[in-house]
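Project standup — Tuesday

K.O.: blocked on the structure for the chain from last sprint. Re-posting the sequence here as requested.
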Amino acid sequence: MRKTVEEQFLFDFYGELLSDKQKRVLDYYYNDDLSIAEIAELTGLTRQGVYDAHKRGRAQMRHYEEKLGLYARFVKQREGLARIADKLLAVASAEAKQGNRLLSQSLFALEKEARDLRDSY
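H.V.: unblocked you, prediction finished:
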């Protein structure tokens, strides 16, 4: 099975809402990068049991995302912060070229703050 960044974020957002078995299986899968067979050996579940818990857990997380939209909101906020930082950088650069040193330094600081906030998620 192919892991996606989106699925890993969904697990971060919704993992606590899953059953204990689903949460444990998906934790091993996403956070420890274990295969279905390795998880089965570690948990004492059959491979089919691990596969079913994995499949149901992923479906449950997608259902939560459809209803709550936390991941979509997260992506939108990160993209918005990136756009704001880009605009701040452009204005700061223009102000620096015009010799407005104090203003450009303030704008560069705000640009860095926006990027740091985006990257802190």
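K.O.: great, moving the ticket to review. The mean pLDDT is 95. The chain has two domains: 5-68, 73-119.
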